[in-house]
Structures are given as structure tokens and as C-alpha cells.
Amino acid sequence: MKIAITSDGEDLSSKTDRSFGRAKWFILVDTETDAFEAHSNEQNVNAAQGAGIQAAQNVANLGAEALLTGNVGPNAFRTLSAASIGIFIVKEDMTVEQALSEWKEGKLQETGESTIEGHWA
Amino acid sequence: MKIAIASGKGGTGKTTIATNLALTLANTGKTIQILDCDVEEPNCHIFLKPEIESSSPVTVLIPKVIEEKCTGCGICAEVCEYSAIAVIKGKVLIFPELCHSCGACKLFCPEDAFIEVPRELGIVEKGKTNGIRFVHGLLNIGELMSPAVISGVKKVAGESEILILDSPPGTSCPVIEAVKDAEFVLLVTEPTPFGLNDLELAVGMVRELNIPFAVAINRSDVGNEDVKEYCKREKIEIVLEIPDDRRIAEAYSRGEMVIHALPEYQKTFESCWTRITDLHENALQAGQHVKAATES
């Protein structure tokens, strides 16, 4: 299966990005082969509104079935849930590689709700 | 004459000036209407204490999908400039609070699968106080689209000799909505670095809109001279200066009008108005803002 991890940079040694909607990159990993590709999220970093919704749509279109990130807001959560994408919360200061291995070991908590309020609130 | 009281920086004294100017002019026998367009945090009513006579909802149209017609093609999400629609696994998700009611989703849907339904954003209340006709808007908590409610306030307003709009602070969409068809804008500031910075932004805005304007300096004896030097350099008239008077702050804290607590200020507001009408007249003769003047 494919999983998406929010990242500060383009490779597995990059730090994970705490934000989802305005993350710099999504690292898409194929868990069977460990092959990965980096997808820029630049279009949403400076979006006026709706960054979480757009990012969720993009992640869904990439075929991800799980997302590893720091936080998700209510609109991102609703969109990701509609796409049946599991959301796993990574702790601070983790690299993409560390987050990936923690997820594989079942150490990351799946969230059943948004973890932060909408940014307009 | 339609005059907007605006400011780049919040908390400079827009409402104090708008309400006291309204009451001063009403006391001289003019027909006055005051519109509180700061719909996220209206506060003119605290000072004017109007008797509210009517209340009406402000609604906007938002899309609703007819699921039997929808094929999940995703065009609606693509054309939505505001990310208010997502299409996931062929299913349309609508985020009403992000919708700007532009209608693009309905217009571009190849299956004609959208209808538009009203959604309430806030209310507009109308009343009277001391011979002043009063209108204000209240945006519902959690809502974003204050321009729609501001527009609702302006629609409810009737005709009057003088119409005073108390604008929201800043220079973004809600402010533009409040001031865009004003014939004159009074920019309220304070003599501090923040006050000057935000005044410069507000001046840029009214110049872009090509509306004649002047500056009022509140708490004019604190801070520094930079605002005055800026105005001099930019040839902007300062039509009102209110000193940092503890008695004004005390009256404000009790929800009292300045001209009630300190009647000598009636003269200050009267002469401010005379200068504004002169400047407005000069601007009209110079041909500035002919468009808005003829539209209104």
C-alpha cells in the first residue's frame, strides 16, 4: 500500500512537517518496496484558504491509504475520512524515515478526529 | 453625503468619532443615519443605545448537489477558487463556510446537478436613537464572509442627508466593502509607529479607490510627530485631533458619549465636519471621485 508523510524536504532523512495542509512536501512511500517519491505541496503553502481540503484531495489522488502528519484540521479530516485515508499522528522532531518505521511497528496513534481547530477560528 | 470612518489599525477610535460625529450633527438638526459596518465586533450600539425596531437575517446562496444527477466528474472542485468543494471517490463534499457564493460550480457542472440554497450568515438590525437612524450587522460566530453582512447593512439603510459608516479596521475585503461607495473617508490613527504604519496602508487603499479623504489623530499628544510629518509630506489634511484626555477614557469605559460627558467637544466635532465638507466640495470641483458621487 501507499502512505503519505508530510515532510520539510524531498527525502527520507528530512524532518516531518507538523502541518498537513501547508506542509512543504508529501513523501509517498510504497510500503511493499520502500520506494518513495516526493510531491511538492507548494500550491497550498500560501493558499488563502482551504489548504487542508486541497491537500487531502491531492493525497487521495496520489492513491495513499494512510497519512502520517503532525496535525489535521476539521476540513482536512472530513476530506481524508471521505477518502478512507487513515490519519496517524507523528511526534515532534521525527524524520520521515523514523515516522515510517514507527508506523510499521504500530507505534503511531491513529486519530478518529481533527487534532486542531480550523485556522480561521 | 456618505462618509466612512476607517482606519488601518484597530482600536484607534473609529467608533468614538463615528458616534460622536453622528450625535453632534443630529444636535444641529441634520438628518443622520449611522451604519455600524464592523459586523465582526459591532460596538456603536454600546454608546448610542438605540431602540431596535426590526431585525432581518442576511443569507447567501450556497450550492447543494443533487446526488442522482452527479457523476462525480470533479469539475466543480476544479473551478472552485476557494477550495469550498472537494470531490473524493466520486462524492462531492461542500464546505459552506469557505463558499463565496460565486456560483461557478453550478455554472460549470455539465450534469446540471447543483441547486443553490440560502444559508444564514448573520443579521441586520435597525432602530433609532436621539433622532439618529441606526443600522448594524452581526456576523454569526464562526463565519468568515463578513462582506455579505456589511452589504446587507448598506442595503437596509434608507436615504438621509448624512450617512456615517463605521468601518471595520484594516485594509482587506470587509473594509473595501464598507468604504467603496463612500464619498469621503476619514482615516483615524494614533501618533505611534503602529498607527503610522497602518495609516500608510489605509492611505494606499483610499487612493486606489480614488475617494477623497482626511486624517483624524486620536490621543494626539502621545507618541511622536511622525504621523503629522507624514501627512504634511503627503499633503493630507488633519481635520481632527483629540487629546489623550483621561476624562474621555473614563466616559468611554462607562459607555458614555464624549459630547455628553464633555460638552465642549461638540464644537470640536462641528469644526471637524466643516473641514470635511469643505474638502469634499474641493474634491468634487477638482473632479475626484465623480464616479461614486454620481452612482450614489
Q: How is this structure best described in words?
A:
The complex is a heterodimer of chains A (121) and B (296). With 121 residues, chain A is α/β, with parallel strands linked by helices. Chain A contains four helices and six strands, in the order βββααβαβαβ. Chain A starts with a strand and ends in an 11-residue tail after the last strand. Helix content of chain B is 38%, strand content 27%. Chain B has twelve helices and eleven strands. A nine-stranded mixed β-sheet of chain B has the order 3-6-7-2-8-1-9-10-11, sandwiched between helices. Chain B has a two-stranded antiparallel ribbon with strand order 4-5. In chain B, a hairpin with a 2-residue loop joins β4 and β5. The mean pLDDT of chain B is 95. Classes of the chains: A alpha/beta (121), B alpha/beta (296). Chains A and B meet through α2 and α3 of A and β4 of B.
Output the keywords:
heterodimer; A: 121 residues; alpha/beta; Nucleotidyltransferase, domain 5; six-stranded mixed sheet; 27% helix; B: 296 residues; Rossmann fold; Alpha-Beta Plaits; nine-stranded mixed sheet; two-stranded antiparallel sheet
- What fraction strand of chain B? 25-35%
Helix content of chain A: 25-40%
Name of the top-level CATH class of the largest domain in chain B: Alpha Beta
Described by its quaternary structure, the protein is heterodimer
- CA-CA gap between termini of chain B: 9 Å
Which secondary-structure class do the elements of chain B indicate?
Answer: alpha/beta
What is the CATH homologous superfamily assignment of the largest domain in chain B? Answer: P-loop containing nucleotide triphosphate hydrolases
